[in-house]
Design brief:
With 518 residues, this protein is mostly helical. The chain contains 14 helices and 4 strands. The protein folds into 2 domains: 370 residues, no CATH class; 127 residues, no CATH class. Strands 1-2 form a two-stranded antiparallel ribbon. A two-stranded antiparallel ribbon has the order 3-4.
């Protein structure tokens, strides 16, 4: 009996024109959106590889430790082709150095990148919007339509139990919805597998499999909701009107609306406020360098013979690069730069903590959005899918935290190579290699300006600019949670979808047992 009802509902749905239209539309959307995202992924992958090579080439030209800055690049995730999430909105790279802590660009007044509600048109968005609406169109008249046709009374008059009739129609209806879902998914997967730019590892395939329970529960929830209104309403048209109102409210309006509510309930200051705090810390550092300068005055010299210098200010003994200077000046700059750069590391650590606390406030604001948006099954499903695909907004914080961890490794690497304590911090030669001011004056007196230029050329030229040996520089690799770790993080969303599905299913059963079938 149950199988007969399931088969009847399944075939009735498949043979309708609305099913054909819905199936074709869903297939077109799945294929076209995946093709667009594949093209986007290919471009981002090419940009990533190009940037990676450019940044490696730049490292080969670094000749002093003070100029060492490593650009950390984040590769696009293959799963973003199916669930874009916030992957395209997050930082693709960040620069780190001993004197430059990583920070997130953008802020509350511009845009909190952790508040992504809907990504572009991807597989998840199609399920969220199009398939959820299609489910309602196939469920709004499951009971009321049979009642209007007079078939419901006739079927139940033949001693078919109500729960069997209800279960058969729900299972058959859901099975018919799974057909375009599975067809669209397999078509999208085939496109990805055939494209040479994308390689899905075993972990990615497992993530794809884990997406299905969330999608099935999400669609089952909406189907049960449609059946419930089909039972409660006497006419199918009335049921459809109420369901469309609920769909618009909870799928299209609520998720973006709670973003504005969260910004009002838990406001976060602008990025510029945090930048001002960082600027104040850097001003404190400059004051410390100024106090150091008072006890280490600049030696008298002829500035005309200094070459290839990159300094903060001529009065401070702090430089990024020095090509040539009289020995007294070189000693002054090397000693002061060692002090200044090591002190700046401490201040940049404090600046990172300021930015990190700001990022945490942004994350808590996004957390409030997540809590409020759990009223919307569409948002819950979006959260589940993006966490499983590792394309959720928390990847931004992970990237920055791992970048800071790498920066600390970089600082230790520089210390291990005497990069923060020796002359190679700012110059190619030790201070004793530079002639003293008196020697330079003697050369000028006996050999003229040409003699001084010859000495400078010998010590400071392209031939003497020896790049640093960075062959053992630590590599950076952005790590993401494994599939099961992601599943553990997404369990609350999965539990909400399951709970809502059960609640609506039980409500359907209870309502149908008491329904008037006349």
């Amino acid at each position: 009996m149950l199988s007969t009802i399931i088969k009847r509902r399944f075939l009735d749905n498949l043979l309708t024109s609305r099913f054909l239209i819905a199936a074709v539309l869903i297939e077109i959307l799945f294929v076209s959106s995946t093709a667009v995202l594949i093209n986007d992924y290919s471009k981002r992958q090419l940009q990533y590889r190009t940037a990676l090579q450019e940044h490696r080439d730049q490292l080969r030209e670094v000749s002093v430790w003070a100029m060492l800055s490593v650009r950390l690049d984040r590769a696009p995730l293959p799963m973003s082709v199916f669930s874009a999430g916030a992957d395209r909105r997050l930082a693709k790279s960040v620069a780190v150095a001993h004197n430059e802590a990583p920070a997130m660009v953008g802020g509350a007044e511009e845009d909190n990148p952790l508040l992504a509600v809907f990504a572009g048109l991807d597989m998840i968005t199609i399920i969220q919007v199009v398939l959820s609406l299609a489910v309602l169109l196939f469920s709004y008249n499951v009971v009321s339509g049979e009642k209007e046709n007079g078939t419901l009374r006739m079927v139940l008059a033949n001693r078919v139990p109500r729960h069997v009739f209800l279960a058969g129609n729900v299972i058959g209806g859901l099975a018919s919805i799974m057909v375009p879902l599975l067809a669209g998914f397999l078509s999208a997967l085939l496109l990805v597998l055939l494209h040479p730019a994308i390689h899905l590892a075993g972990a990615d395939m497992l993530r794809l499999l884990l997406l299905f329970p969330g999608a099935v529960l999400f669609l089952s929830l909406f189907f049960a909701l449609g059946v419930l209104f089909s039972i409660l309403m006497k006419r199918s048209a009335t049921s459809l009107v109420f369901l469309l109102f609920i769909w618009v409210s909870f799928v299209m309006i609520l998720p973006p609306a709670v973003v504005y509510i969260a910004r009002y309930l838990r406001p976060v200051e602008s990025q510029s406020v945090v930048d001002e705090q960082a600027d104040r810390l850097r001003s404190e550092w400059q004051q410390e360098v100024a106090r150091y300068t008072e006890s280490h005055p600049r030696p008298e010299h002829d500035w005309n013979v200094i070459r290839g210098r990159s300094v903060m200010t001529g009065s401070f003994p702090y430089a990024y690069h020095l090509g040539f200077a009289p020995r007294e000046v070189a000693e002054w700059l090397i000693e002061g730069s060692v002090f200044g750069h090591n002190l700046l590391i401490e201040y940049e650590n404090r600046i990172y903590r300021v930015h990190h606390e700001y990022h945490q406030r942004l994350f808590r604001q996004a957390g409030l959005v997540n809590q409020l948006s759990r009223l919307s099954p569409a948002w819950v499903f979006f959260r589940y899918a993006s966490i499983i695909a590792a394309t959720d907004a928390s990847a931004q914080l992970r990237f920055l935290e791992q970048a800071e961890q790498y920066r600390q490794r970089l600082i230790q690497y520089m210390r291990d190579h005497d990069g923060l304590s020796g002359y190679r911090l700012i110059t190619y030669h030790p201070a004793e290699a530079f002639p003293a001011t008196a020697t330079l004056e003697e050369i000028r007196r006996t050999r003229g300006e040409e003699g001084v230029e010859a000495v400078i050329e010998r010590l400071y030229s392209d031939e003497t600019a020896r790049p640093l040996d960075l062959s053992d520089l630590p590599e950076f690799s952005f790590s993401i949670p494994g599939p099961f770790e992601s599943l553990y993080s997404a369990l609350p969303e999965l539990a909400i979808l399951l709970l809502l599905t059960i609640i609506f299913a039980v409500a359907c059963w209870a309502a149908f047992l008491r329904a008037d079938v006349r």
